[in-house]
## 1
Amino acid sequence: MTLDLAGQRVLVTGGTGFLGSAVCRRLTERGARDIVAPRSRDYDLTRANDARRLFDDVRPDLVIHLAARVGGIGANLDHPAEIYLTNLLMGTFVIEESRRHDVAKTVLVGTICSYPKFTPVPFKEENLWDGYPEETNAPYGVAKKALLVHAQANRAQYGQNCVYLLPANLYGPGDKFNESVSHVIPALVKKFVNAKQSGATHVDVWGTGTATREFLYVDDAAEGIVAAAERYEGAEPVNLGTSEEVSIKNLADLIATLTGFAGDLRWDHSRPDGQSRRHVDTTRARTLFDFEASTPLDEGLRRTIDYYLAHTDEAETATF
């Protein structure tokens, strides 16, 4: 059966952020008329009393938990304790308040960083517990993976309906371009645009370029999350991705071309690559709730670059 979103009061934590804004737009397109996207200044979800007050105020029928403290490799290295504790507390309190308020369904969004460092490629959901995550991402990945344990334990003991999704690396308009928090795509877009505008002859890029990633356009991720909210009821985690793997070197070459930068790329081997490969199996999402990503990487990158050029000051304001 498909959940009628028009009849639901939907609470979207993190609903004003990068992914959350896209999810709220997609919910509206699907007919949802009662969407609540609280601000962190009004409800600090790392505090049990604030989480309880939010749920007491909203009384949601459906919860989509997107609020997160997240950044690229640099932020992960600089703030591991904050990243671990903030994400663990927010998710824990959201799951418990959803249970306490008898919320009909809670959608939890995890991270591909939870997979073990040496997961066989493509990553299958059943491999999630086969080892420890890559070290630079481990605090974030472990905190998010703990929420899957919590959700499954609550389902077993209380019958709570929580579903858990594992999106590939996200990108798109609205992403964070501040170098203190940015992931690889916005970081590269900013570097190449600035180099082109300043007439620089080279750009320094972290790592060796040999690591691979799978990138999911933000609107496609939003579609997968809403599709799961409508049609998925299972306890098992589900990957969201494109089934396309690209090396960081090829990604950098593509972004350089799209931004018009014609200089050299200098790879800084002293900087970490992170996990050597990331590429997910998307069979479950396609089979269980008919989700397939539709945005080609080059088209998504063009839209991301256009956004950055049109909103440079705004795009660079986000910090950790």
Note: The chain is about 45% helix and 15% strand.
## 2
Amino acid sequence: MNFADIDAETLLHSLQIGVVVHSPTTEILYANPKALEILRLSKEQAEGKTAIDPLWKFVDKNNKEIGTDAYPVNRILANHKSLSNLEAGISDSTTDDVTWVLCNAYPEFDQAQKLKRIIVTLIDITHQKKDIPFESIVELANDIIMVTDADTITGDGPKIVYVNKAFTALTGFSREEAIGKTPRILQGPDTDVSELKRIRDKLKLQENVRAEVLNYSKNNESFWLDMNIVPLKNAYNEVTYFAAVERDVTEQKNKVAILKEIAIRDSLTGLLDRGGFLEVAKNALARAKRSQTSYCLAMLDIDFFKKINDSFGHDIGDDALIYFSNVLHSLLRESDVFGRVGGEEFAILLTGTNLKAGLQKMEMIRRSIENSPFITPSGTAAPITVSIGITEDHDASKDISSLMIKADKALYGAKNAGRNQVMAVI
């Protein structure tokens, strides 16, 4: 390109703003030294070329590659309108560093209003981008930072593109092990599937989502994360990434769980109290129904318990209740839900157990109580017997309270029939 005015050429050469002139077919007609520096090109590489280097690219402010149709010169060609203050990054195959620019572009027309050339100016703002070292802050933050792409929400889920040091420290997964995988590497047997679905549904709508999720480390140790997931958009208002800022709340959750456990426990026996039994049994019953697992519920009442209090005193009566509770502990499974729901009344939910097996289990408990008399602190034997009512129900609409009412009817039947026996009602 020839310049009639040498002073103008000298001025362009000395400018600290990059200037690139394109032909209507995008060839570079001229690039001043600052432009070549910003673009990381030699004069020979630039002038007369339309395609510079297949690994040379523009990226948006989120480091997402911009398609060639969105390059400034191609946008001008598409609509013949000026472009102002486009923030973009320039990178190539030689380094991971990005040169950040503020880009302006405008078309020039001849007298017939035919496009003559396109002028693009580039202002290097890399130093401004680094005034606050956001990357260092994120990398060294105590909170976990995980960034995923926004292109693969369905299927296995979004791919991880970045994790900080806090992530690797908590999860045990190295950066290399995490990047390219999905967040599913952190999920385990007790991760709430319904909560994961809620998160995914929000991401499909490209909305913010807040959630608490139980995750697992590489060594299969569980931990709770309070997650705040936000969509990140590029210059064209397209969601390109999701950034999850996550805080380890395992300690807080454990404290709450301990306090809740204390609140739903009977202070004397340590078993679930009535409210606690109803809450825990309700959840266990719901799981059994979802998995179509059999279940039955039993109500137990210590026979003539008032006589123990009257004969030995209420303190010894308390000891008898503790003894009875310990027998239940020794004979029931960890999966069984049981609690003290009244003065001397107890309830047991047996999941994975039909009525026939439940009757056998209750009969074993009845015999064990009958054949192992409670011994008072003074050494006196105080025989105890128990009446038991049990039921099963295949009606999915029945709740735990309805089952307890049915089992209670069976229990009263056992009492009316002479006590110290097990009776069932269907």
Note: The chain has three domains: 6-129, 134-253, 264-425.
